[in-house]
Amino acid sequence: MANSLLARTTSRLIKNAITKPMIVQTAASSDGGSYVRTLIGKREVVGFGYNGEPTYVDRVDFPLPAIRWKEPTTDILALREKEKGDWKQLSIEEKKALYRASFRQTFAEFKAPNGEWKGTIGITLLFVSFAFWIFFGLKTFVYPPLPQSFTPENRAAQLRRIIDLQINPIEGISSKWDYEKDDWKK
Amino acid sequence: MLRGSVVRVHTLLKSATGLQNGLQPLAAGSTRFMSKENTETDAQFDQRYENFFNNPQIDGWDVRRGVTDLLGHDLVPEPKILIAALNACRRNNDLALAVRILEALKNKCGSKVNEIYPWYIQEMRPTLTELGIPTPEELGYDKPELALENVDDM
């Protein structure tokens, strides 16, 4: 049983290992590059990005992504022609359009707080409260009651005995006890 | 049999001479490849990057590479380097890249942004005016432009 299972898994693994890369290869070879390149459409690859893959991520430490954000439409291509001239001739709207064609979000946008921490804390507390339910459930239904020595009378008696035996007389509990007045030192 | 021993002797000799000539023993006194061995002065550093961006051959890819490299250091680059980078953007007809570099510079100023950043803009103002590059503030990019209203403020 175990042998036949092992054999089947191995043969499947080998089959996958042989066939899968071939699929990727055919997809990539039609585009003459990596598989990711087939996903980005006509977007221009303009740089190395953060790991050399043609992907777009807005990052503070790698501010210049590897590809432009928008695919070149006729509007954008017209703007790019205009960009080759004097930039002082471009209006603010055109400059913004050029920026948004290359980049998805400005620094101010992707650095803005998104309030995600609230949800994270909420879900964390949900799990914590669940743990409390388990704790009290176990306390009620599983564990035996606490031993006698936990009752207040017994604990008082134990303290009295500690003092009577003069335990820790230098710096500990008995040093704080006044044996002449039979009370705590004031 | 003979061939085997000859090969063995050969490899032994090779490793022995290799130790003597090429490889240094890992004892004290050998060269330690540490960052403090870098002897490049700040002026040389600035000059290196300025020369890189002033090279008329570089394309948009190289500008991006240079800027990423430059901003990866623990420093805010000198205005003259950034001016060279902005001029490189102009040569490559990439306005968005120039604006993005200014934004990245502002981010690089960190907690001292109110002290450092205005000075940088002041230093680069002639270039910005000459090339027609807007600062992120002029585009309204100092605040989130496309942000949704905060649900707590509704």
TrEMBL record, chain A:
Keywords: Membrane, Mitochondrion, Mitochondrion inner membrane, Oxidoreductase, Transit peptide, Transmembrane, Transmembrane helix. It is a single-pass membrane protein. One of its GO terms (biological process) is mitochondrial electron transport, cytochrome c to oxygen. Pathway: Energy metabolism; oxidative phosphorylation. GO terms for cellular component: mitochondrial inner membrane; respiratory chain complex IV. Component of the cytochrome c oxidase (complex IV, CIV), a multisubunit enzyme composed of 14 subunits. Component of the cytochrome c oxidase, the last enzyme in the mitochondrial electron transport chain which drives oxidative phosphorylation. Belongs to the cytochrome c oxidase IV family. This is Cytochrome c oxidase subunit 4.
Automatic annotation (TrEMBL), chain B:
Keywords: Heme, Iron, Membrane, Metal-binding, Mitochondrion, Mitochondrion inner membrane, Transit peptide. Pathway: Energy metabolism; oxidative phosphorylation. GO terms for molecular function: metal ion binding. GO terms for cellular component: mitochondrial inner membrane; respiratory chain complex IV. It is a peripheral membrane protein. GO terms for biological process: mitochondrial electron transport, cytochrome c to oxygen. It is found in: Mitochondrion inner membrane. The keyword rRNA processing does not apply. It holds the Pfam family COX5A. Component of the cytochrome c oxidase, the last enzyme in the mitochondrial electron transport chain which drives oxidative phosphorylation. The respiratory chain contains 3 multisubunit complexes succinate dehydrogenase (complex II, CII), ubiquinol-cytochrome c oxidoreductase (cytochrome b-c1 complex, complex III, CIII) and cytochrome c oxidase (complex IV, CIV), that cooperate to transfer electrons derived from NADH and succinate to molecular oxygen, creating an electrochemical gradient over the inner membrane that drives transmembrane transport and the ATP synthase. Component of the cytochrome c oxidase (complex IV, CIV), a multisubunit enzyme composed of a catalytic core of 3 subunits and several supernumerary subunits. The complex exists as a monomer or a dimer and forms supercomplexes (SCs) in the inner mitochondrial membrane with ubiquinol-cytochrome c oxidoreductase (cytochrome b-c1 complex, complex III, CIII). Belongs to the cytochrome c oxidase subunit 5A family. This is Cytochrome c oxidase subunit 5A, mitochondrial. It comes from Dendroctonus ponderosae. The lineage of its organism: Eukaryota, Metazoa, Ecdysozoa, Arthropoda, Hexapoda. The gene is 109533883.
